[in-house]
User: Fold these one by one.
Assistant:
Number 1:
Amino acid sequence: MTALTLSTSGAATLRADALVVGVAKGAGSKSGGLVVAPGAEAVDKAFDGKLATVLETLGASGAEGEVTKLPAPSGLKVPVVIAVGLGPVPEKDEAYDAETLRRAAGSAARALKGSKKAGFALPTESVEDASAVAEGALLGAYAFTAYQGGENKLAPKGAKPDARKLPLGEVALLGTKPRDKAFKAAAERAVAVVEEINRARDLINTPPNDLYPESFAAVATAAGKEHGIKVQVLDEKALVKGGYGGLLGVGQGSTHGPRLVKLAYTHPKAEKTLALVGKGITYDSGGISLKPAGHNETMKCDMSGAAAVFAAVVSASRLGLQVNVTGWLALAENMPSGNATRPGDVLHMYSGKTVEVLNTDAEGRLVLADALTRASEEKPDAIVDVATLTGAMVLALGNRTFGVMSNDDAFRTSIHEIAEEVGEASWPMPLPADLRKGMDSPTADIANMGERMGGGLVAGLFLKEFVGEGIAWAHLDIAGPAFHEGAPYGYTPKGGTGSAVRTLVKLAERTAAGDLG
């Protein structure tokens, strides 16, 4: 994990491998449009006030996320200056928004792979700005190298990983107030939350031959011991005894049996309890309803919801939030075999309802249904489930936005607003009652499939059937943003992203503060 420090050095005196500054597009400036952002004054001075002119000569435009490297002048103690674009200059009396700073810091950190230390002289006058830059830099510095070079257990003895691929070693934030309690707290929060997001990313990126229900449960158990979280693991015998037909039905085709993991963080002064439920399909082949060629290669990411819930519970513990947070990880591997659930089979769920399985690739809702019922028994104040649930949601909202459904409009609105605040794109989605009829079954209480059109909403309606009466519930379908297959951008890497963790942590903080009623 990249280290974070609030530096007492100025930009002109900091000794590091590089110095990061911000530049923006601004009409009417002396440089012809490029404007040096606050925080870079000392760097601009070292360039005799011509930093913007030099950057424009090199082709820089100030576009958001654009990175330009140039040799540092003699007045600085670093060899390289990295200018990162912030987009248009804000309107008068307005500041750069947090997400712009977060993405800029992430872009710069990605460009600094292999470096030991870099100073970030981006706008950090306010605590909020400093927090955004810290988060972005730490998220952008992430690299998954566990199976490369010397970190690979199968590599030749003495082999070393390529240093150029290692993440930036240290982020030094300049322009902050290192002795100010608020700045210190913001830095500590950024480190705690980002470390858990990056742990979630590691889990998502881990190949399924190493991450399966039992090994995921072992990771959760170890983390619980480290952070004072009570962990309970229900193995196959316990699931059979408890009647968890959804988890068992999905997992019975695999040699790796299913697990239901409960993580309970409690605070002695807590007045509210949040239950978080995560879909944890460690590999999804589709089961007997096998996925077509080209759709299997990334299905290790189908446990991203469980990874997000795991990270959020541990974050709540590390931050000492005055709220009880219980996480439920519904873990299974969906495989085809002679023992696998068949289309047409009927499962007896933990709730007592029966489900006709029309498609074994609609498995996430089955494991979540059992976990939602179990979570409801403890009567929390609210339940939020997180899942890479439907391709239909990707068709509706694209690859960067997750859908939010709920049985409570106010709760749905709150989660949407929280997600936007922390920089996670989301959109409120309805649960049309007319789509429920499509899941009527002549054989069972309900089928696991309904109408094809609006499939993401149908899945939400299915889950709603298993939420306890009177409990506010929301469903986050993160199928789009959970796993990024394209080129990295901002602080978003290729592979697992840790989507929804920041939203869940902020929700827990708001609940602890009594802001959600």
Note: The mean pLDDT is 95.
Number 2:
Amino acid sequence: MNTEFEVLIAGAGPTGLLLANELGLAGVRTAVVERLPRRTGWSKALNLQPRTAEVLHCRGWLEPVLDRALTLLPAGHFAGLPLDYGALDTAFPHQVGIPQARVEEFLEDHLAGYGVPVLRGRELTSFRQDAEGVTVTLRGPDGAEGTLRAGYLVGADGGRSTVRRALGMPFPGRDARVGMAVADIELRDDERESRAPGDSWRLPDLSPNPAGSAFLLPLGDGVHRLLLGGPEQQGVDRDAPVTEDEVRTALARCPGPPRALRAVRWASRFTDVSRQVERYVDGRVVLAGDAAHVHAPAGGQGLNLGMQDAFNLGWKLAAVLRGWAPDGLLATYHAERHPVGARVLANTRAQMALTLPDPDAVAVRELLADLLAAPDANRHVAAMIAGTDICYPMPGAPDHPLLGARAPGVRLDAGRGLLLADAGTAVAVAADGWRDRVDRSDAPDPFDRLGRTAATAATDGTGALLVRPDGHVCWAGRGADADDARAALARWFGAPRTPVTHRGDSGRTAAPTS
């Protein structure tokens, strides 16, 4: 294939940048194109959920991100109703309070180590795909147009995605019913938050209020995040500027003493529009993040949903380009992530309904608050918002309670699969043919980092786990189940590279999977 890049990613937000890092880690020739000429520094989203923290930890990228964080908040919320993250099965039972701009800064800077360029000031205007790749037309800062050729194009270019529109991809869903706005503001000097920003972070009050909602959160350096949701934001064009009068009106609604506005640094409108594409993959064009799904930012899930799309997609796309992907591997990106996106759309619609100043909505909200007081119910909803309950279908594998679930705590720094099994078992020997794609744990106790997952495995005699590069268990069994392990290895990692001989469960010598 005669291409300039193996993958071209449109959009330098968290989704596109995390995907670029995943592909760079795999040695895939990748470039990111971004229409904005420089980083804006706008804070935008403010949190990483526990599952996203696990994703970054899996690659060894969490610590440098935490160095840029404002706080760790040991709770989440559902329409403002508190969720206890302390009961979750994760080493990161908290939200990481961090502006989106700082996440993007780390991810973009980290790309330099892989030699992946971010081509800023280049706007994708059109593309044409064929059987061997995609020809992309870009408009440069001077208005001149040129083309790039890539094996695959990934649209991670936001809710108004040019890539999605050029595909003609249907984007079904529901139109906006509620308008809101968000602003980063400076208060008058004598009213700035004097404490560290994390010391006064709290969950938003989203109780229905006919006068409108307003929520103020300190970001440090004299900057505050203001959420506005009142009559002034309804029926306003989404591209209309957020006015200082709107900000002052919302500030007056915030609990506490009166505050005076000094300046608006950045502001943007958003709605509760809810839409999702019918297909995430169309030939050699793939959609991820807000290009594939848009929803209200209820519960702080949007940035996380997109980054987790990228984590699911990256290793699969790399496998296709490196020639070892089994048939249908790329199609599992849609099969696995579309239902996850649909579930987020559903829960955000439910959350927004619970914030409306309607007597029936208030009654449902009060009932739900009573239900969430029960630990099991709270833990169930908390895991949904945190992303720790995601369990992918693993067709063809023997049923097991860990199948498809996360393997929390596992480090997969190299972006490869991992076999957790005692050395010398039939399963460990059978995996020799996949050494170029699958690592083997040499720890005395291969399950020692799995937390409750290890306890689950211990109760039923599980002696081996096969973990995909995205940290999900794709096979679980006994150390003697060599045939089942080989089938799972072939299903997710393709054919073995080199012939191997192994001893099956019956003690006979068997031929390798080819």
Note: The chain has 13 helices and 26 strands.
Number 3:
Amino acid sequence: MRRSSDLTPEIAEETAWWRDAVFYQVYVRSFADSNGDGVGDLEGIRSRLGYLELLGVDALWLTPFYRSPMADHGYDVADPRDVDPMFGDLAAFDRLVADAHEHNIRVTVDLVPNHTSDLHQWFQEALQAGPGSMERSRYIFREGRGFDGSQPPNNWVSVFGGPAWTRVPDGQWYLHLFAPEQPDLNWEHPEVRADLEHTLRFWLDRGVDGFRIDVAHGMAKPEGLPDMEIRTQVPGVLSDDVRDPRFDNDGVHEIHRMIRKVMDGYPGTMAVGEIWVKDDERFAAYVRPDELHLGFNFRLVEAGFDADAVRSAIEHSLAAVALSGTPAAWTLSNHDVVRHVTRYGGGALGEQRARAMTLVELALPGVIYLYNGEELGLPNVELPDWALQDPTWERSGHTERGRDGCRVPIPWEGTSPPFGFSTSASTWLPQPNEWDHLTAEAQLEDPGSMLSLYREALEHRKSNAGFAGEELEWYGAPAGCFAFRRKGGGLICALNTSGASVPLPPGQVLLSSGPMDGDQLPPDTAVWLV
């Protein structure tokens, strides 16, 4: 079991450290490559810990680095208690955790409890054992419909496109809400629960500080697996539709209570769930005192650059967590969505708006999740067809380009690809030639860069008393604008999404996302005042 002596004094002293922490999501394949194969790895992350400490983050979230055939870039896990050789080994992981703690950075890792890889030992045993076997009962196998069983058991569709069922040679079908290489586990089977507990303890005993639970609103399936309502826009995992029987079933909460019970035996650890549920009361159920510590809030991701939409997202998010007393967890980008520089219009406009929204997000009470590269202002990349690897591309019949555009490797230094990411010119996804001005090296000493804005904002958030207080008070503001104050701390954040400059609220400017216009707040700009 982990011991408090395993951590530096600064880390060990606070068990609820996560309540206002800034996490940094590392997409392991794309962060830093240490061995020249064009794919990021654990040693690459370790080599950049100094950069992360300089940036000012409190913790990392590592995407899956487990043994996997990589049908979904690691989210198809063949062995959840080992490191894939592509990323290193267990010794490399242990070194990363130890060194991160020396830098006073905690380490959290991804868990994928909804499904396994089709090459997982259990699934291979299920295929060999046949219908009615104990081995098959760990997954969701069913007989097909129709007189010869040639139709899927129900009409569910996969998040990645196509049917959610695949037929095996003996005639039965197995469920996969994602790719066929990701069969869904049967969470009513006691061995499935026991195995996750084993996995939790395995990594906790190695010193990890917490987990991100993939598809935390999945896992539990409704009794009888009823048909879903098929509409023109088929709801996927990034949806909130009470008519969709695939997700947010009540039985999932028993699973999270089991996870919490294990983690309560490891003081100072935490779990955050990927919860694509917008109903405030249903969302709050996931973060009750005996369930997850935090739930990812995606309302800011879904809101456009519009003051009313952003304010609504903030108010709903705070209302949801107020029901349970846990902090909100905010994010603008992650490995599954278009980067926000691009979402806000791309180019100079998108960057200007992204800078503004960064100040809005970092002014909010609660937990912040940054996605690697957003501090550099990276946009989504329009990749050529030949480079696309996301399973969505093939499963959709080449109609959905997938998520590769937000996963392009990080540019660290130099003037041409691979920009210090690797010693190999051939990276797993190609980098644009024009990223030379976006490298960490180019931005580090530029006071006007995106990286400098993040560093300064994170330093203020950590050291300025104005950021105390967990409640917001809203000011009256012109159309297309808003301003709020952190109660107890006094920091004021104002945002202008209108097309004209507006008067600033009262206060002294602490930080602005762009050039100011006297006592006026320009369009597409945010400001902090004290």
Note: The chain has a mean pLDDT of 94.
Number 4:
Amino acid sequence: MTHWLQRTALAGLITLTPLAALAQETPAKGANIVVTYKDDIATLDPAIGYDWQNWSMIKSLFSRLMEYTPGTADLVPSLAESFEITPDGLAYTFKLRKGVKFSNGREVVAADVKYSIERAVNPKTQGPGAGFFGAIAGFDDLSGGKAEGLSGIEAPDDDTVVFKLGRPDATFLHVLAINFASIVPKEVVEAEGQDFGKKPVGSGAFVLKDWVIGQKLVFEKNPNFYVADTPKIDGFTVEVGQEPLVALLRLQQGEVDIAGDGIPPSKFLEIKNGPDAADIIVDGEQLQTGYVAINTRVKPLDDVKVRQALNMAVNKERITRIVNGRATPANQPLPPLMPGYDKDFKGYAYDIDKAKALLAEAGYPDGFETALYASSTDPNPRIAQALQQDFAAIGVKAEIKALANANVIAAGGTEGEAPMIWSGGMAWIADFPDPSNFYGPILGCAGAVQGGWNWAWYCNKDLDARAIEADSMSDPAKKDERAKLWGSVFTDLMADAPWIPVFNERRVVAKSKRMGGPGNIYIDPTRVINYDAIYVKQ
């Protein structure tokens, strides 16, 4: 514990690394770029937004106490200038940078930090990230509607924030770097109400200058951002309503700089084998799992035998071929690169006969009818059709509902609405590199709430208790023990089959030839696209 505290104390003295240190070329001055997506953005409110499209934009609009060195999962202080942790790991004291201002001109103070995190936890916000802050003292009272604030956050002066935890939390510094911990100005949030997500005010590298619903979002450089030489571009425009094939063609013609939806599988081999492949493709591993969420509160999916049968019905090898083999079949929620992944776990084998037998045992020898929701962006409808065919082989008739990402997310976060969801297009990519992130928001009881991302509406209090036990192991000497405990949580969870883990996919981004910087800022492990770090070559 002492070694960990010494190491963390040293981290508290590190200044935020200027992004210029990562540059391999000279960034062009005054550059603006164009990014495309098929679907519109639902919200830019950091307490509510939680999909892979808006995640990167929210990251760049707001600041947090902690941040990551670009392209890595290495934590550094950001809005915080320094921090200290008590030997028992139960109190964190942060000193804020002086002179940091919101884009409306008001200085950021400690009370803003307290308000912002309390807002993320408050059930009235209906945000999906409350559970991340479960270790803070007073969490149960606020999340349960018995208090208006968190007793475990204090702001003794404008420059100091103190967090008091009810238990040690090995992930707490990571939690303070995720979007839900973004700092917002109370007076603007209260004045805008539900419109704050369309009119965000933060202290990040960019500000939102214009948003034409269904057409575009325009972001401009924040001239007062506190990190030196950041961002590298003067602005970026996100064009929405753009089919991925059209976006890719425009990128090849120099009209688009980043095709946000990636390279459609139908064009991947052509692009990969083309003369420009090295200049426009960024391909890398990510902490991702694509899965089918099975709503455990909807009949007949509330029967574990039915869910197990659905797991056995899916031919995952065939589905990976739909994405040109840019994925490997999955058998558990954790991706292979994540600590805690159990390489010896076999999961549910593809077995049509056994699946049919389980359905018969559950009282459905002739199957049943249900619905499968999916993103309407290619290749997700085709994957949904493959799943539909697999389910039909055991007598389950699944109607496909292909919708915009925001609509799928809304259906998943509404109890009883979506029986099954293919997560592709919003598939789970780690917010930070820790197994807890694959549990709390998407499989834990805290995520099974209105607006949450636990689309299986699965709640196992025994597993929740083991998850808390694992996250309380903040001593690095217990790292292996903690990973093993987390691994057992996920493999034991699969006995209840709230998910069909389908594949772990590599991320492939298409960027124009003029874009510069290392590939890992285009597939950033904590941002997806790091708008703060990307640039146009001179």
Note: The two ends are 48 Å apart (CA to CA).
